[in-house]
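FAQ

Q: What does a record look like?
A: Structure on top, sequence underneath. For example:
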């Protein structure tokens, strides 16, 4: 039986919907929609003005420190690099400030409407590429069962859209699909493309143009996505009652964290992410962003306004890789609202289990985000949509910027005539010998402010949790929460220089190479052999060794000791990242949080369904 015939049996009757490729050089007609909330301008001013003022004051203070002895070329470069990097730190602080102000004022980005919820036909889309079939279909079974238990208002169908290239995995997918179709309370379909043209973008395009006309909305999931029935219903109802909404994004929480590095990410996501998400939702309003999954999209809006062209320049024809940001911008360009609802609970995704797996995923994301710089000139984009794309690129460019800043700071430590540290004296080598314009007390306060700004988002979120008895209880109590907070901060500081080098390498790879190998995310979270660790982290180790030699020779400021130590220990830190802490570690090292202390019901259900599908599937696969 041919693949095409199999697909026709496993899919509903065709319902083609034309999807127009957008012209990035010409803005289309824009439908008029009322913005979400009545004060987006005020929140945006509250974001950018303090950030710019804070950066300006910082640069003025550093200039006052440096110019006392006369500004050198390196010192001017240092000042400019500090301004270029620190403004993004202050934007994070401003986002937290907005969130706190919104909480105090009981302001929310979520609007309440009395409009009648009209039932929608919603397609749950699960793109697959060489994934573990029992994980994908186990999650799907759990979501459909949870929807059925809620007596869903809307009508749902689930589509497993396979781009799998491995025939053995594809055979497992078909068996898992057949098993799910027999028991699922909603229609379930499966399609495997003969060729994975244009990757995920092409996969979704194929569905829209083949079957999209029968569905008013599509809820896009990733292979590791998991959503409760309540969360899915909430997104569908929000879209139903907001005729101007083209896309509504939920805030996925991290699950499945068993290793030290995964727990680090999960604790950060649960403990701090909510506050940044609240701030983002308040200032973005109708100009939100899209993260590629766990979001509901109005199908006809997407088809009419978000078709992506290839990028052509210099004889190159490039697929738009990080398509989600661009699709959100194009939807808003056409006049559709793009909303972010951080308070929709029950939206989950998994996270890489080791430092290496995280860095490998980051390489792909880096290439796609840097590509956005080529799209900033797209005609008709809303300024906030342009900012989202620019911010995505800058989030990776900051790493080489910090690295350059580190090099400049190290070079400033050496005096050309005495070959000693310029700002340190032998009598007190642990404290800078600042110029007279800045006293020792002032300089100490200045450094404390700098470090405090970097940690402000975490400190603010942790303070709110620690001051709220109900919040600390779900983290296991004050002592458990504060010890986990301390471990997370310490580990984040330790891993930050290593990630700085890895992201710098990713930027260089994206700049000087054409493509990035793609493979499914490893979900078994196993460690790597020592040789593999050494090969992967040799650059960090070399830079750490050079910094350490400079410190021992008295050529580099002692303030760089933590960075040198982290880079020198990149290999053992990477090995530590795969340490299994789930069900074994105690105290702060486990970094327990509400997701680990009280497993969400849908997560437990998915775990059971995964095991059931695997138990049914594996004997059949072995028998063939």
């Amino acid at each position: 039986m041919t693949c095409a015939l199999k697909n026709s049996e496993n899919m509903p009757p065709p319902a083609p919907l034309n999807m127009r490729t957008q012209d990035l050089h010409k803005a289309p007609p824009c439908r008029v929609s009322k913005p979400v909330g009545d004060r987006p301008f005020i929140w945006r001013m509250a974001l950018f003005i303090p950030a710019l003022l804070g950066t300006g004051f910082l640069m003025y203070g550093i200039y006052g420190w440096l110019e006392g002895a006369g500004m050198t070329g390196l010192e001017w470069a240092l000042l400019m690099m500090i301004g270029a990097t620190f403004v993004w730190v202050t934007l994070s602080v401003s986002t937290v400030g907005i969130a706190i102000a919104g909480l105090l004022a009981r302001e929310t980005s979520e609007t309440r409407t009395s409009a009648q919820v009209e039932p929608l036909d919603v397609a749950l889309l699960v793109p697959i590429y060489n994934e573990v079939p029992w994980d994908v279909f186990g999650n799907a079974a759990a979501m459909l069962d949870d929807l059925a238990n809620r007596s869903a208002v809307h009508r749902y169908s689930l589509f497993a859209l396979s781009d799998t290239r491995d025939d053995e995995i594809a055979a497992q997918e078909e068996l898992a699909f057949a098993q799910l179709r027999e028991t699922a309370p909603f229609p379930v379909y499966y399609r495997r493309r003969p060729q994975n043209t244009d990757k995920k973008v092409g996969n979704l395009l194929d569905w829209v143009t083949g079957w999209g006309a029968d569905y008013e909305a599509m809820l896009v999931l990733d292979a590791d996505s998991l959503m409760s029935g309540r969360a899915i219903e909430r997104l569908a109802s929000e879209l139903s009652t907001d005729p101007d909404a083209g896309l509504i994004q939920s805030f996925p929480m991290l699950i499945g964290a068993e290793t030290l590095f995964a727990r680090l990410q999960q604790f950060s996501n649960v403990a701090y992410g909510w506050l940044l998400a609240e701030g983002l939702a308040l200032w973005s309003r109708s100009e939100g962003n899209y993260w590629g999954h766990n979001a509901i999209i109005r199908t006809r809006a997407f088809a009419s306004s978000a078709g992506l062209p290839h990028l052509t320049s210099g004889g190159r024809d490039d697929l738009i890789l990080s398509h989600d940001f661009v699709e959100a911008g194009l939807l808003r360009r056409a006049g559709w609202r793009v909303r972010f609802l951080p308070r929709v609970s029950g939206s989950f995704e998994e996270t890489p289990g080791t430092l290496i797996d995280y860095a490998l995923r980051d390489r792909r994301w880096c290439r796609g985000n840097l590509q956005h710089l080529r799209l900033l000139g797209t005609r008709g984009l809303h300024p906030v949509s342009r900012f989202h794309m620019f911010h995505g690129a800058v989030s990776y460019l900051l790493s080489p910027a910090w690295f350059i800043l580190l090099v400049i700071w190290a070079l400033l430590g050496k005096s050309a005539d005495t070959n000693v540290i310029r700002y340190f004296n032998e009598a007190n080598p642990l404290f800078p010998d600042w110029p007279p314009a800045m006293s020792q007390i002032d300089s100490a306060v200045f450094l404390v402010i700098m470090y405090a700004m970097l940690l402000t988002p975490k400190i603010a979120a942790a303070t709110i949790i620690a001051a709220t008895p109900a919040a600390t209880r779900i983290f296991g109590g004050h002592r458990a929460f504060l010890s986990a907070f301390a471990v997370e901060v310490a580990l984040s500081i330790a891993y930050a220089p290593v990630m700085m080098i890895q992201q710098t390498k990713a930027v260089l790879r994206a700049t000087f190479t054409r493509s990035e190998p793609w493979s499914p995310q490893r979900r078994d979270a196993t460690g790597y052999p020592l040789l593999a660790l050494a090969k992967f982290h040799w650059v960090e180790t070399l830079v750490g060794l050079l910094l350490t030699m400079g410190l021992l020779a008295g050529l580099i400021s002692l303030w760089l000791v933590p960075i040198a130590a982290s880079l020198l220990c990149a290999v053992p830190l990477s090995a530590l990242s795969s340490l299994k802490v789930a069900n074994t570690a105690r105290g702060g090292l486990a970094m327990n949080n509400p997701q680990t202390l009280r497993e969400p019901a849908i997560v437990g259900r998915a775990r059971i369904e995964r095991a059931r599908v695997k138990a049914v599937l594996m004997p059949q696969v072995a028998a063939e």
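Q: Is there anything notable about this one?
A: DSSP finds 22 helices and twelve strands in the chain.
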